[in-house]
Amino acid sequence: MNTVAILGAGVTGLVAAYRLQRLGVPTTVYEAADRPGGVVQTFQRDGYLAEAGPNTLLETSPRIRQLLIDLNLDDEILPSDPDATKRYLVRDGHPSPLPDTLPGWLKTDLFSLTAKLRVLGDLVQPRCAPDYEEDLAQFVVRRLGREFLDRAINPFVAGVYAGDPQQLSVREAFPRLHAVEQKYGSLLLGQMLGARERRRRGEVPRASAPKLSFRNGLGTLGTTLQQALGDEVELNTAVTGVRRTSEGWEVTSTCQQRTTTHRHRGLLLAAPAHRLAQLHWESPDHSSLAWLDKIQYAPVTALVLGFRREDVSHPLDGFGVLVPAVEKLPILGAIFNSSLFPNRAPDGHITLTCYLGGTRDPQLALAPYAEQLESTLGALRSLLGVHGTPTFIHHTVHTRGIPQYNLGFGQFRDRMRTLEESNPGLVFAGHFRNGISLSDCVIAGDDAGWKLAGIERPDFNTPKE
Ligand SMILES: Cc1cc2nc3c(=O)[nH]c(=O)nc-3n(C[C@H](O)[C@H](O)[C@H](O)COP(=O)(O)OP(=O)(O)OC[C@H]3O[C@@H](n4cnc5c(N)ncnc54)[C@H](O)[C@@H]3O)c2cc1C
User: Fold this and answer.
1) From atom 48 of ligand 1, which residue's Cα is the shortest distance away?
2) What is 4-38+220-295+406-453's CATH number, 3.50.50.60, 3.40.50.360, 2.60.40.420, 1.10.10.10?
3) For ligand 1, what atom is nearest to the CA of residue 240?
4) Which of 11, 28, 39 to mutate to test the pocket of ligand 1 (most atoms within 8 A of CB)?
5) What is the pLDDT of residues 132-147, one digit of tens each?
6) In this structure, are strands 331-335 and 320-322 parallel, antiparallel, or unpaired?
């Protein structure tokens, strides 16, 4: 009865359980699958290493490094190759590096002269009314122009959310952009003036945050957390129902066709929204979780391909390539894994992770494997000069892959907050609430742990007098 129940041993649930363990609070982590980590999953075969889900963990906060140190993972960390920072964007069928200096911006042929001049219009555009909810496309066209939306933001959003700028809410999906416009009245000014404040808070902007993995891939994070938690993690155990009682929570789960019910003092809901929506939920206020099924998820396929180095003519000297929708190519983009991290492919070989589908082309994300492979190889031939057949293939379909913080998403966050307020000991955390990146999930899990322990988290970033 003293334990906290955690639904889902994805990164959010595991980090929360680990924080609770360190604060002396026992947990039971219920996990439906036969392994920890959720979307984070690494495969190793024939000298190749493939990630089925995320490829990099962004170190956006010192709290992430601290967690890895606490887990004794310092020696396992692989920082991404500092020379592999170039991001390619496709224009007229050819990848060109996105410039990162002012002279580079002036010279690049990724954007027309008109588009470059239009970006400066950001300095004089008025702010949007603070309570007006705008979609990302509208916001970018208003501040930076149409071409910047189609050529830069559209592929960026495909790379992060596998999403659609015309549906994503600026306020919900990109709260920092919204806040910068409100505070500085200009994104360009905010970029310069906000840097000092971020440094003071110890935060690192996503674009320049160090990118990490581990020697044996990101799966190391899930397995290490599971080991630290020992028998607190119950694999192959799907929660089917939750009942609120006067003392806490009764959680009913099924493991190997055996159904059991256990009592807990607190409850963290860290499984995907559509899975939580299926729970049989009983509470005195007759609330339900069925509405969580309305949170849209983008389907995505991750296709990891290995090739002989000589079969790829592109130098692969960067992070990867992103494809704007206007280019009408079948892939959303590709990560140059073996350029980012060592030991991702045997000597003389490389790996690429290609993403297909998203809200741009949901049918392709769910299309037959042979069709996906053929489309991807066609795109790689034209974009990166890939010839020859793959020496390695790993294919993962995420039918409900990435939650979309679309217009109106705030109502879901409001409902979660209201339920938490009326049900002490209940916390919602994970990619469907706190941000979709792995680093967001690490921070959200850690915050949830402190909250469920009823202890205020010390602010490690407050400068000492
Ligand atoms: C293809 C892809 C690529 C990505 N790439 C990146 C990247 O490079 N960098 C980055 O920062 N982020 C990336 N992300 C996002 C990031 O990986 C996820 O948002 C994050 O891992 C989600 O973690 P989570 O713990 O919130 O949820 P999940 O990982 O979904 O974990 C939830 C867990 O709940 C379990 N569960 C479900 N139902 C039940 C039940 N009834 N009872 C018990 N357990 C249940 C599930 O089995 C699962 O293990 C990517 C996501 C995808 C899909």
Assistant:
1) 38
2) 3.50.50.60
3) 41
4) 39
5) 999 999 999 999 999 9
6) antiparallel
